## 1
Amino acid sequence: MVLGIIFLLVALLAIVSVIRQIRIKNLFALAFSALAVLVFGFFSVATIITELGII
C-alpha cells in the first residue's frame, strides 16, 4: 500500500510538471512528463486496487 501511495505522489508531481511544461512550451520535457503521469498513475491505481482486494 505504501508503494501505491508513493507512486501516486510521483504521478501528482508529474501532473504539476505537465502543466509547467505546457506553459513554457517545452515539448520534449512535456512528452517525458506525460509519459511519467501515465506510467506512475497506472501503477499507483493498479497497486492500490490490488492491495484493497477489489480485483
Note: The chain has one domain: 2-52.
## 2
Amino acid sequence: MSPLPTATLSLSLLLLLLFSSSTTTTNAHNITRILAKFPQFSTFNRYLTATHLASQINRRQTITVLALDNTAMSSLLSRHFSLYTLKNVLSLHVLVDYFGSKKLHRISKGTTLTSTMFQATGAAEGTSGYVNITNLKGGKVAFGAEDNDGKLDATYVKSVKEIPYNISIIQISHPLDSAEAEAPTAAPTDLNLTEIMFKQGCRAFADLLKATDADETFNQNLEAGLTVFCPTDQVVKDFLPKYKNLTAAKKKSLLLYHGLPVYMNMQMLKTNTGIMNTLATDGADKFDFTVDKNDEVVMLDTSVVTAKIMGIVKDEEPLIVYKINKVLLPKEMFKPVESANAPDSAEAPADSEPADDQTLDDNNGVQGLRSKRLVMAVLSSCIGMLLM
C-alpha cells in the first residue's frame, strides 16, 4: 500500500481533531454536588444552599471556597446569626479568584489580599470584604479578614477538590471573624408573587393561581428558591375555554407545572438545558419539561407545546419570573405532539402514559453519543474516499 498523500493526512488529522473536540463537553461546576461527596462538610453545604450562596458560586467561572467542616460550622452557628447575616459571613469564605494548593504555598512575597463574594455584594465598606492570605513558617498558610486588625484566624488544612482554574475547594481550620460581615443584617423586602404579576402583564395567570390556591404552593417555595414561567394575559385568555373544561385537580396541576422549586436565572437556564422537574412533579407524576436553547432564545418543550421565554418580569433572588408565549401543557394531561409539524389542535387529553423519564445527564449523554456517531460516520466516509 502506498503512503497516504500529505493532503490526505492533513484532512484525516483535521477530522480526528473534530471528533476529539466533539466528545468534550464543558460542564459548569456544582458546589452542592461536589460537597455532597464529603459528609464532613454537610452542614456547610446545607447552609450554602439555605443562603442561596450555592447558586451564586455555581455562576462564577473562577472561584475558591474556604470550606468549614461540621465542627467549625457548629462553632459558627453557636453565635446565632440570622440567616441573612450568616450569608454575609459565609460569603467572606468565598474568594473570587482561583487558589489551588500549589498557588497558596507559592504566593508572591508571602502574603496577598484577595476579594471575596462579600466584597462583591457592595455591603462591605472599603476593603473589609477582602481576605489576607499569608505563608507562615513551616509551610503553613493562614487566613484572616482584612477588617480583623491583622489577626489570622484560620490555617489551611487540605485541598478538598480542585478543577484548575475553575473552582478550588480547600478546608480551613476555623471560621473567619469580621465585624463588618457579622453586623446584623435585615431581611430583604418581602416578595409578593401575585402582586408582582399584576403589575407586569401577568394578571390573568395570577388570578388563576389565586382562584385555585396554587399561589400558596408557589409562596411556600419562595424562601428556598422559585422560578415561575408566566404566560402573558392574551395567551391565558385564549386558553381559558380549554382550561375551564379541566377538573379542579388538573387545573392546579397545570398551574404548578409553570414553576420550578429552585432559582434559575437566564444564564443558569442556558447552561443547564435538559429535563426539569416542576412544582407539579410528585413521584410517578413526572410533570417535567425540557429546557432547550436556540442561539440566545430559551425554549421550554413539554412534548405537547414548545414555549419561548419572551422576557423577565422580576429577578430578585430567590425569585425569578419569566414571561412566555404559550401555556405549558404537560404530557400527563394532553396528547403529545407526534411530529414537529403537528398542529396545535392536537392538544387533547392524553390516551397513553408519558415516555420514560431521563435525567439531565442521561439526556446530554444521548445527544453526545449521537454527535460522536455522526462525526465517526463523516470521518470514515472521508477517509474511505481519500484512500480510493
Note: The two ends are 12 Å apart (CA to CA).
## 3
Amino acid sequence: MIVSPNMVADAEIICQQSVPVLDMKYHLCVAAKERNLQIDVTSSPSSPGFREVRVTESVAAEISRFESVVCCSDPDNVMESSAKFAPKIRSGSYTDIGPRDSMDDEHIIIDDLSACLGSLFKCPMPSAFYAVFDGHGGPEAAAYIKRNAMRFFFEDVNLPQSTDIDSVFLKELESSHRKAFLLADLALADECSVSTSCGTTALTALLLGRHLLVANAGDCRAVLCRKGVAVEMSHDHRPTYLPERRRVEELGGCIDDGYLNGYLSVTRALGDWDLKLPLGSSSPLIAEPDVQQVMLTEDDEFLIIGCDGIWDVMSSQCAVSLVRRGLRRHDDPQQCARELVLEALRLNTSDNLTAIVICFASPSQVFESCPQPPRWRRACSLSEEAQSRLKSLLEGN
C-alpha cells in the first residue's frame, strides 16, 4: 500500500506530537500551491481579527522548484538515478518474549550472503538474506526451519547463477524461492521431532545488488521506507484478508470468528499438517508464498521485517516514521529494532516480538540530498509615521 504525503503527515502526528519540521513545511507548501494561495499576512477588512495567508510569486516559484526535486516525473532521470545507486547494507535486530510463556520466534540476519555460502553462491554484487519465522503450537517448527534454511533456500533449489539480473534470471529466482517454501513445508511433514500440530509462518527478504525479493507465507510483514513513505512488500495472510477468505472458502474451508476452521489465525503457514489435506489435495491451508520484487533506488532508505506482534499494535507508516526518526538521532539499525519492539510492548502487544531493520544508505545520504524548504517571511507592517510619509509622496506633497 502506498500512502499519500498528506496521510504521512497525519500518521506522523498520531505517532509523535512533534512532527519533523521538514515534512510539515513541505506539505504546507504543496497544499498552498494546490489552492493557488499567496503567502502574506494582511488584515481582512470584513474581519479585522482574521489574517489571510497568501504566497508571493517568488515563494510559489520556489515551491515549484522544490516539488520538481522531490517528485521526479522524468522516468529517464529515475532510471539513471537507479542505475547509479548501490545499497550499503547494514542491519540490526531485536527480540522479546513479550507476555507469552515461551519464545516461538526465530530469525536470520546475513549481511554478506556470498561469504556465508562460499562456492555454493557466487555473486559479484552485494548480497544479503533475512528471514523471520513465527512459530505456533510450540517453537519446534520455527527452530527447525531456521536450522535448515540455507539448505532449503539455496542448496536444494538450484538458485540461478548469473552476473546479469535480467527478466529470465528474476523469473528463475522467484520460482526457486517458491520451491524453497514448499520443500520446507514437506520437510516438516516428515520430521519426527516436530509435531504435526506445530507450524510456523515465514517471511524472507533476499537482496542481490539493487534487487529486492520478498516472499511471505503468513502474517509477518516487510515494509519498505521510500522517502519516508511506507510501502508494504507483503500481504498479511489472515482470514480477514478478503482474497484469502475467498480462496479458503472455495476450497471447502470455513472462517469461524476470524480463525481458519475455527483454529488457526493465518491461512498460509509451513507445517500444521494436522490441518492440511493429504499430499496432492488442494488444502485451504497452504505454504505457497506471495512473492514481490522491486529494484531499489536512492529513494529507498530501509526495510523493516517484523512478526505480527509488531503489526498487531502498530501501522506500517507508524513503524517507518519511528525508525526514520531513530536513524536521524543515532544512525543505528540495531537500536531502531529495539525501539520498535519497546514501542509495541508499550502499546500492549499480546505476542512474541521480533524486528529486523535493514538500511540501504546512511541518514546523511538520505537527508542531505533533501532540498531545504522555502523560508516563510512575514510581511512587515508600516509605522504610522512611514504611512504618513508614503501618503505624502503619493499625493505629490
Note: Residues 1-81 have pLDDT under 50 and may be disordered.
## 4
Amino acid sequence: MGCVHGKSCCGDSSSSDDGSRDYRELGFIHGHRKNVLAQRSLKHVPVPSHNFILEYTFLSQRGYYPDSPDKENQDSFCITTQLQGNPNVHFFGVYDGHGQFGSQCSNFVKHRLVEKLSNDPALLEDPVQAYNSAFLATNQELRSTSEIDDSMSGTTAITVLVIGDTLYVANVGDSRAVLAVRDGNHIVAEDLSSDQTPFRRDEYERVKLCGARVLSVDQVEGLKDPDIQHWGDEESRGGDPPRLWVPNGMYPGTAFTRSIGDSLAETIGVIAIPEVKTVQLTPNHLFFVVASDGIFEFLTSQTVVDMAASYMDPRDACSAIAEKSYKLWLELENRTDDITIIIVQIKGLSNSGTSGVGSDEINGGGTVMNSRTGTHEISATPGSNVYRSVRNSLSDLHSCQHVASVTSAAIEVHSPACPRPIE
C-alpha cells in the first residue's frame, strides 16, 4: 500500500536487506540481524502549532521458537506523520498478531486502522469518536471483506495519535504505551494504557457476563481447582495466566479480553472497542514508548523508561531494551515472544507552547480528559496515577458485538515470527 493522506512508507520483514536498514552494531542485534528490523537513522517531525519536535526510532525482533524456527514475526507497526496532510497530526501504532493467521491480521489492521483515521473528516473535531469508529470498522472489515480467517486469529493494537500538544492513546489488548514524566530529579513512568486481561476485575466481570469461563490452563485441564478465581496480579503472575474459554470447550484460550479479530472469542466477550486516554503534553513529558507485550512480559513500565532515559541515542535504547527482554524470556521460558518497540522523544516543548495550560497544571503533569464524561481532570503530581483509563459506557462494554465506519496509511514495519499460544 502506498503513501496515503500522510508522510508514510511501508516495510516488510520478508524484504531483502538492501542496506536501507541499519542494524545497530550491538552484540545482540549483530547476532540476530536477519530477524531484526531497525531504523537506520533517527527521524524528526515538527509539530509547528506548538513549536516542538518528535524524534522517533523503532526496532522489531522476531521471537525465538525452537519448535518452529521459521515462524514469521506476527508483530507489525505503523508510523504515519502528517495525517490528512496536517503537519500537527502524527500516528504511532504497534500490533501484536496471534493465532495461525496472526501475521496477516496484524498487517491488515496496521494498514486499515490508520487509513480509517486519516479518512475520517471528524478526526480533529472528535478524535475519541474517530478512534472508536476506526477500530470497530477495521474489526468488521477484517471479518467480512478480507480473506483472512479471524475465527481463532487476531491482533492487539496499541496506538498513539499526536494532535498538536495532545496525545490520544487507544488500546485493545495487552501491548502498552508508557510516558516518561520528569518529577524533580526523577523520571517516572506513567502508563498511557491499561492491559486488558482477566487480571483486571472490570474486564473479568465483563467477559463473565458474556458467558466466558475464566481459567488458567492448569485449571481447565483439571490440575488445579477451577473455583479459585484469583491468579494474583499481572506483575507477579508466573507462566499460567487466566484465559477465556467457551462454556463447553477448551478453546479459544485468549489471555486478553479485547482485540481486533478473534470472531470466536467475540462470542464470549472479547471486543474491539478501544479504551482511549487523552493527555495534554507539558515540558515535564520527555518521551513515550509504544511496545508489544514481548517487551513488557518481564520488564515493568518503570524499568523500560529507566533504560530508555539512560541512553543518549534512542536507537541504542531500543536495542538495549529489546536485548534485555529477549534474555529474560530465554532465562524464564524456553522461547521468546516477538518484540517490537517505538521510542518517541518530545523535544523543545516549552511552557509558552502549551496553550491554555497554567503553571499549576504544568507542574501537575498535564491535563487528562475523560472521554466518557467529557470532563477535564488536573493531576496533582507528575508521579501520581492520574492518567486514568477511559472506559466506554457499560452497555458498550457488555456488548459482544461491533459496528463499522470509514479509511489512510503510514511508515510501517513488521519483522519475521509468531505469537504466544493465543494472547
Note: The first strand starts at residue 36 and ends at 38.
